Amino acid sequence: MSFRLRITFRGLCLFVCDRRSAVPRVTVLLPNTEMPMPSGGVMPHRAVLLCDVGYTLNPARMPSPPTLQRAPFTSCLEAMDFSTAGLTSSPLVPTLPCETLDISTSASEVAPIDEALLDPATFPRDMLTARLILTAGAVTERALGPNFTYAADPKPDVPAPRAWTIEWTICDVEASSVKLGTMRLFPINGLLDVFIYHVPTMENPVLSPLTGSPIGPHAFDHIAAYYALLNNPVGTLPVPRYSPYAPDPCAGGVHVLGIVPYTCLPGQLQLPIT
Questions:
Q1: pLDDT digits 0-9 by tens, 28-77
Q2: I want to staple 218 with a disulfide (CB 3.0 to 4.6 A). Which of 98, 163, 190, 242 is the partner?
């Protein structure tokens, strides 16, 4: 019996959309925040896999009330390569929402990124905390957060909302379970719903609600972790800046578990660079 795998990403997750070969793929890179940065350091981040404890049971059953389970998420996950393993016929749509922060203009056209970061046979632990290789599925939802200006945008001075949550869905997975990180997960009623957080240690545990918003202009300096993954980045490596003077979808504070979208935003890199 097939099921839908729905993965919600929050925090420092770089989606590399690679169309350079006949078989495109999307590789999600969770950078190691302890590596050297091109523009100063980034506070330590931790990667966490979060799901309902019912998905860890065999046979799977949803407890009452639902109970969240968390586990470290620090490995190279070959299990995500569903289509090449023949586990799904769900096509890959290697496109991210336009509101996703795009660092492509800072990448060199020649060897923009270390190929070892994208190679399933290697895992550079000095540069990555975790990685997912997606060869099936598509973005099915995104949540828009605060307004930022970004010098790499077509309209660099115009504040625009940024996606701080990306939902990726793979349909028709023909398997009885999936191993993610340290957990073996089983679908319930045709659905397996998981969350991947890569957030500062101060925002862990992600089971705690966080509120609040910055006062005045605020720079998203965590983007340095994305730039550190590029080979010979070009230009000035712009830093997005929060714009409190534009209408803010998150005005009044953010009321979610373990994430502050003013400090952590997913990003995208489009290959080839044009």
A1: 999 998 877 665 667 888 888 888 888 888 876 766 666 666 665 544 44
A2: 242
SS3 150: coil
User: For the chain, give me the number of helices (H) and strands (E)?
Assistant: 1, 18
Q: What are phi and psi of 90, to 5 degrees?
A: -65, 125
Cα dihedral: 21, 23, 26, 27 (round 10) = -70
Q: What is the DSSP letter of 143?
A: E
Give per-residue pLDDT as tens, 189-246. Answer: 899 998 888 888 776 666 665 555 555 556 788 888 999 999 988 888 888 888 765 5
- The region, left, alpha or beta by phi > 0 then psi within -120 to 50, assigned to residue 235 is left
224: which DSSP letter? H
Q: What is the DSSP letter of 257?
A: E
84 three-state secondary structure: helix
Give the helix/strand (H/E) hosting 145. strand 138-149
Contact 148, 176 (CB under 8 A): no
Among the listed residues 146, 151, 169, 134, the one whose alpha carbon sits nearest the alpha carbon of residue 99: 146
C-beta of residue 136 within 8 angstroms of C-beta of residue 170: yes
Residue 212, judged by CB atoms within 10 A of its CB (0-12, 13-18, 19+), counts as exposed
